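Lay summary. Proteins are chains of building blocks that fold into shapes, and those shapes determine what they do. In this project we predict the shape from the chain. Here is one chain we studied, written as its sequence of building blocks.
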Amino acid sequence: MKILDFYPTNCKNCYKCVRNCSVKAIKMIDDQAQIVEEKCIACGNCFLVCPQNARNIHSDLENVENALIQGKKIIITIAPSYLGVYDEPYKLISVLRYLGASLVEETAIGAEQVSKLYSEYIETTKKDNAITTCCPTVNMMIQNYYPDLIKYLMPIDSPMVAHCKMIRKRHGNDAYIVFLGPCISKKCEAYGYQLSGVMDAVISFEEIDKLMESRNINLSEFEETYPDLEGNYMGKKYPLEQGILSGISNIVENSKFTPVSISGIENLRKAFDALSNGEITNVLIEANSCDGGCIGGPAVPKKSKNVYARKIRARNKIQTLRNIEYKNYTPEEKKLNYVRNFRDKQYIHPAFTEEEIRNVLEQTGKHNKSDELNCGACGYDTCREKAISVLEGLSHPQMCMPYMRSEAEKISNIYFEYSPSIIIIVDLNLKILDLNPVGEKVFNIDSNSVKNKPLSFLMPDKDFQFVLRTEDNMDGRKLTLDKYGLIVYERIIYLPKNKILFGILNDITNDELKKEQIINFKMNTLETADKVIEKQMRVAQEIAGLLGETTAETKAALLKLKKVVFEENE
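And here is the predicted shape, written in a compact code that computers can read:
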């Protein structure tokens, strides 16, 4: 099932998603961004940076609403990050009940169990290193790109999965279990567990907010109520940096491991590289793909305060619950199987010859090493990486912006330099910015000498003023430039985004002279015709008088001839 992708109609081909994808799991097909599932780690960065909000994320909301209609028992497990995401978090609990939830429990319950399993693992493992497995993006990142580190992933369920197993054990198959949180990658993690019946749906805080908006539900109008089952202090801290480590600190202190909390994809990449290279060892890595931990998840409502405000709010709220203990799960639930195995899903890049790579580079003007700017505008760090992506079918040569700009400038310059028309460019103050060679020749002036001078210095600017005032292009007007003995056909184009006016003047002086010559010729012909007619009429009248005939037909014929001459003249 396709969980993450872009709406093609919204994509504007800006490559911002490609630039911000750390694993380059986005391909451009027909100038539209598409996610490559086998490469994607579902971090959500591409969706966060998309200026067109083109993200298309699979939603389980419709399924949840259908379950409500069918009268199913809806049980929601809510991620503890809600304490920081919402100004009035406990009012959200009331809203969830209002929407139809039978029970609302905190995922922190599952986190508490996971902490105990982590502690047991740390005490017994013979592995040199250990990595937490709460974040599905981290798990995918290691399985796809660092398969040599799979052995260090602690083989334990995430808090979401652990808590869903608890709920299923307690309430049976009649329960419809929904996870609610700030994460996109949880939708990917949940898919297999949905098929196996551990849980039924995953929805985000963002989706809940949109649902509330569509139903005109105002959170502030509700009373505060508390979850039916709450997690303990240890589990509530999971969405914060150091949150996992603080819950198992006593065990870690007495172990061989040095604890380190790492958040953010790029920071994780550096740590995993160091781990792979043997530069670091005997470390316990609390790994979070989102900066600041889960509290910085990509699926929080856009109106929510920034990540640091969320972090402080969550920390303050959780701190007040430090000494409160909750009895939140049964001994039977503790004994459930929470083991998770990870497997190698490494993405294998196709191999290409140096000749193939060079051929692609040359398509974009990279004939030698100095031509490779490595500017990153296309989304790839180097021109070589970009060339390889073209061969993989992930991108196309035209994504090289410096090259395309250079080509566009070449075409523009060729037109400007070799156009048979006079081209003059002015700013919004009608000061001359540029004049092409034809203009220089016609006006007998060097373009550099007139730059930044008023257009009126060179020619009448009344038409340019009109275009500037009306903001309507002038599609063609005959203009006489007496100063230069010219008659031109004038077109003026207004480019507001560029803040310029573009004038194109076609010299029609010779055409107009020829036209005048033709008119003179026709007028002379007309005068000759008049004389002939008059003479013929006199002769005709004399003959007719002698013969006693009428001149009417002769006159009509001659007038018809005269009319034809007049029409041709017009």
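What the prediction tells us: The first helix runs from residue 16 to 20.
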